Amino acid sequence: MRSSGTTTASANTAITAYAILTLTTLFWGANAVAGRMASGHISPGMLTMLRWLVALVVLLMISWPRLRMDWPKLRRALPHLMLLGALGFALFNILLYSALNFTTAINAAIAQSGMPVAIFILNFLFFRLKPGFLQIVGLLLGLCGVAMVAAQGDLANLAALKINRGDALLLLAVVVYASYTVALRSKPAALHWQSTMTGMSAGALIASIPYAIWEAYSGSLIMPDATGWGVVLFAAIFPSIFSQSLFIKGNELIGGNRAGLFINLVPIWGTLLAVVVLGETFELWQAVSLGLIFSGIALAEKFKPKV
């Protein structure tokens, strides 16, 4: 039997994880709205590059003593951390911000709730974490909800392969971030979060530079105006430093599968903010899509295999 002290500590750990992951998803929901606001004011590659440049400068300022202490371990882990940053911080956001030039912030928020489905699938493919029958049913429901987003509420569009360019980019972004979440289990555990975030932010900055250069070469580069700089600063502080650091901590506390479920809060925050801030309309088919995704994830979590 567990002692009361162990049970209390476990409960406190769970409560802490739930609180920080809820805050994480609030900032991520706001990121979709900010990305929509950035359309026409700064190009996706430039936004991603400047976002992580500002974030890296801030992290270096507040983390320098810790970085000096951790440097022997950080130096060995740096290639791995930079690869994670390139995947989850740079590529995901380039895809998300590009998508928001063609689709709504509400769609972006709903599509991100499909991440837990992708996380379950990737964990099965790479780590053989086998789902039970009812978990599979739940995952299929979630996939139906994501498909409805891609089809803009009309599944006939899927049969005709008529998918909005922005929504196709959203689905690709979901797969990218799910891959990053699964890969987080292999990050160096001994490093402080400040060193981890600094290494990953450096990777994100370096990885985003080629895309910004491509934008300039192709004529699609948009340098930030006042609104663009506002989005850059917001994205650098809240969805970047705060959210990513909190998400890493949440993964450490309760594991990737359980932490990934909190991404279901992103569409709630994102939808509310899109309606209030951007004046977007919440359609019936979007509500149905959310219902399918939430029901599927709830079923998958409730009947997850015991380990």
TrEMBL record:
It is found in: Cell membrane. GO terms for cellular component: plasma membrane. InterPro entries: AA-Vitamin_Transporters, EamA_dom, EmrE-like. Keywords: Cell membrane, Membrane, Transmembrane, Transmembrane helix. Residues 18-149, 165-299 form the EamA domain. It is a multi-pass membrane protein. The keyword Signal does not apply. The chain crosses the membrane at residues 12-30, 50-69, 81-100, 106-126, 133-151, 163-184, 196-214, 226-247, 259-278. This is DMT family transporter. It comes from Notoacmeibacter ruber. The lineage of its organism: Bacteria, Pseudomonadati, Pseudomonadota, Alphaproteobacteria, Hyphomicrobiales.
